[in-house]
Write the structure tokens for this entry.
Amino acid sequence: MSPFPNRWHDPSRAREQAVLRLRSLTVAARPKNGSLTGAARPKNRSLTVAARKGHWAVVGVVVFGLAAVAEAQVGKSLGLLDINTAAEKDLAALPHMNAELAKSLVAARPVDGPAALNKHLLEHKLTQEQAAELYGKAFVHINLNTATKEEIMLIPGAGKKMAREFAEYRPWKTWAQFDREIGKYVGEKETARLAQYCFIPMSVKTATDEQLGTIPSLPPAALEAIHQSKSAKTVDELKAALAKATSEKEAGRIVRFLVVE
């Protein structure tokens, strides 16, 4: 059972509940002209199925009898910087960083995951303890479905326990699933903190604009390229389309968040 029964719902179940509630409202409130009453419309125009101060919200929005569900796929930042998009001056201000190291990180972009980030920092003379302190302020998102045990354990406070649980519940499909399963062990606040370090990969064929918009600093040209690549057969094909629309580096950064099915 979910530890947050009043806050989280399965998306498919949410759709059903929203539609059923809409029908009941329509029967009760619709006058003879067939439209919802003025009193009913403002109050019930949208049905909040689930909402959260954190990394995602599932909200059933009722428009002309249809319920739509939007769900973020990149964890909501609670102040954590993204190494691949943060300004160089902001990187330089992080714990144990300096202008030279910040410049080297920008030059190394896109940093392909936390293992690559950790290697870069250690090669530039940070200790593992110093790197760990920095990770409390900035990181490279991990793919919840493919991250290694070592990568997960680079998340501050994750440890062996979370490395095991993250792997056990794969494949991750929704943040509702993440909150339900991880929340059993660490509670709501810590679950939200962990989520900001992660992303659930999005299908290039089915991802909505709302989901794609959670990719840090996604350029409009990249969004359009993704829309035009729904028939892509391989990741390389998708990456080539993104590179044409943006740049090779941007394509490498963005494609991490996507899957071709």
In short: Residues 81-199 form one domain. The CA atoms of residues 96 and 130 lie 6 Å apart. Strands lie at 46-50, 58-63, 66-70, 81-82, 138-139, 142-143, 198-199, 202-203, 258-259.
